[in-house]
Amino acid sequence: MSHPYPFQIPESVERFIDDHDSYLLIGHREPDADCLASPLALASFLRRRGKQARTFCQGPFTRPEIAGFATRFATRVTPDDRAGDAAAIVLDCSTADRTGEPGTGVQGLPTLVIDHHAVGKPFGDVRLIAPAVPATALIVQGLIELSGDRPTQEEAELLLFGTCTDTGFFRHLRKGTGYVFRAVARLVDAGASTESAYHSMFGARPFERRVMLGRMLARTERLYDGLLLYTAQYMSDRAEIGDAGRGDDDLHTLLQTVAGTEALLVVREERPGECSVSMRSTTAVDVGSCARTLGGGGHPQAAGCVFRGTVEQARRAALATLALQMERLRRRR
To answer: Judging by DSSP bridges, how do beta strands 263-271 and 274-281 pair with one another?
Structure first.
């Protein structure tokens, strides 16, 4: 096989995954599918190499597409986990603080960071950062394949799921990313299915989720002459509709396709005094930098954070980070 990826595996990374007997694999708080599928697939690969591997994530696992992963992750690192020749591998985290409690539990251990975000303050003893790659799952697939191995069917299913979710089921891929589809073809040949991945991402949603979607669409505001769309979900919404209505299935996709829209801001009240903030953009707005200003992270086109405060406070803070870019866009019209 000719070299199929836009990155190399440094010798330091190869040594790291050879030199230790036990690995603690950690994803970030507020996980998405790529954050969970990547460590699960890598842990499986390490076990096949005779290593011990355990996976950790603080959660929460409330998003329907990842709810089934909750039992496969511990939320706290114990002294027994650290015993012997243990090392940590942090995946899909641009900054150390996003690892939450599990990250605190591995402090002092040798640490490898695998990520496709080239932002934030660097951390870890060894780093494999590939910003040209649209999903951490693809980096893990590269680690497996460039070592001369192939993913098992279970690993392929995980890697495909992570890749599909982080690329918006390939909607966000740009020119020059044909290698992604060639990598996906190898996963399908290994037994994965895009049909199953799509169903996991979008299927079997409760009726209440669609009711909530309608409410959030009706609540949407057009700001900056329609360049930015904003909506919110409140605890009172879930109290009325039911907790099964939590989430915003299809909301981002539907609002991003509104003519003239360049960015999207969604604030969800999770509990009193705490909100989750998600931002999306097309190509003209870097929402990743805005989310980092608020203590979160993500990509230039998809990012978010946890905000301590009310929905209105979160709205004002997020809009303040977006204001300069939105004003520039409005002046260009």
So the answer is: antiparallel
